[in-house]
Design goal:
This protein is α+β, with helices and mostly antiparallel strands. 28% of the residues lie in helices and 28% in strands. The protein has 8 helices and 15 strands. The strands form 2 sheets. Strands 7, 8, 9, 10, 11, 12, 13 and 14 form an 8-stranded mixed β-sheet that branches. The structure holds 4'-deoxy-4'-aminopyridoxal-5'-phosphate.
Length: 311
């Protein structure tokens, strides 16, 4: 993967190799940082890069910073502007990109310290999940999703992600592509970095937001797109045994987009191939993210048109 020329650190765009953080920081010591992962989608015909649902990501970014009681909360407008500037500086064109915005504790040797705070932004080329059309296998993890009253997954704090790392490493060691968490109540929660849906008898079912999941922007998008496709949806508790009864299953998230899950605990989901509803949804999702048909223009922020309009 090509290394970008620039990153954004604290208050300016810097050469990639200079975007470093000291070992004494709270971010390094405690994982005291919060982040957003966004995707920029390239539209070849329009020669435009679209950042998907920037406003919703910035709202969640603000929430995470407030939750961690950071002394400074970077305004959504500021982070948006700096992200667009960096995408242009790195001349991100031709490929989809993964964008990370991170607010990190750059002071602080004690656990209760809340500042000073820095801002880091990176833009990296990121191809699709390799098995996005054929489907992935998953293991119901023996690791339990951290509970909301321990380390809330609703907050995108970097330290939370070690729970997902344990499950991912275990799944890989056991020969699966990834993992599905149960929560401390024994109900289906989500994947390490993505939400989870099953389809039963034509209805799409996903764990409600009280199941120790991230309030995923893709999940909200998918619920709306399914509704527009005429597929009924429900958000509720999902039992482990229901997974086996499912006709289809899929993960969704910024990085995972809409990825079919075709094998769980070495049992085929449905007939073991991507299901018809998952396929239709996936096509619709790609269409909307890239802006091919023009639907849901309100979800796409153009990177280059905006700059041209300003100039
Ligand atoms: N759950 C977790 C734990 C995640 O890290 C992510 C990725 N941000 C998701 C779900 C999917 O969220 P989103 O659709 O907002 O990317």
């Amino acid at each position: 993967m090509a290394q970008p020329r620039f990153a954004f650190l604290d208050d300016k765009i810097v050469p990639w190799d200079e975007a470093t953080v000291h070992v004494s920081t709270g971010a390094f010591k405690y994982g005291a940082s919060v982040f957003e992962g966004l995707r920029g989608y390239w539209n070849e015909k329009q020669q435009e890069m679209y950042v998907f649902r920037m406003a919703e990501h910035m709202d969640r970014f603000t929430f995470s910073q407030r939750f961690m009681r950071f002394d400074e909360v970077f305004s959504p407008d500021y982070v948006t502007e700096k992200t667009l500037e960096l995408l242009r500086a790195n001349e991100c064109k031709g490929e989809n990109v993964h964008i990370m915005t991170t607010a990190y504790l750059k002071g602080g040797a004690a656990p209760g310290v809340t500042g000073p705070v820095g801002l880091a932004i990176t833009t990296l080329e990121r191809p699709r999940i390799a098995k996005i059309t054929s489907g992935v296998s998953a293991q119901v993890s023996s690791w339990v999703r951290v509970a909301d009253n321990a380390m809330p997954m609703r907050v995108k704090c970097n330290a939370n992600y070690n729970n997902g790392r344990l499950a991912s490493m275990q799944a890989q060691a056991d020969g699966y592509d990834t993992a599905i968490f149960l929560n401390s109540r024994g109900k289906v929660s989500e994947g390490p970095g993505m939400c989870f849906f099953i389809v039963r008898d034509g209805q799409a079912i996903t764990p409600s937001t009280s199941n120790d999941i991230l309030e995923s922007i893709t999940r909200t998008t998918v619920l709306q797109l399914l509704d527009e496709l005429g597929i009924p949806t429900v958000e509720r508790d999902v039992d482990r045994s229901e997974i086996v009864a499912a006709d289809e299953a899929f993960f969704c998230g910024t990085a995972w987009e809409v990825t079919p899950v075709t094998m769980i605990d070495r049992l085929a989901v449905g007939d073991g191939a991507i299901g018809p509803i998952t396929k239709r949804l996936q096509e619709t999702y790609f269409d909307v993210c890239h802006g091919y048909s023009g639907a849901h223009g309100e979800w796409r922020m153009p990177v280059y048109k905006a700059a041209a309009a300003k100039a």
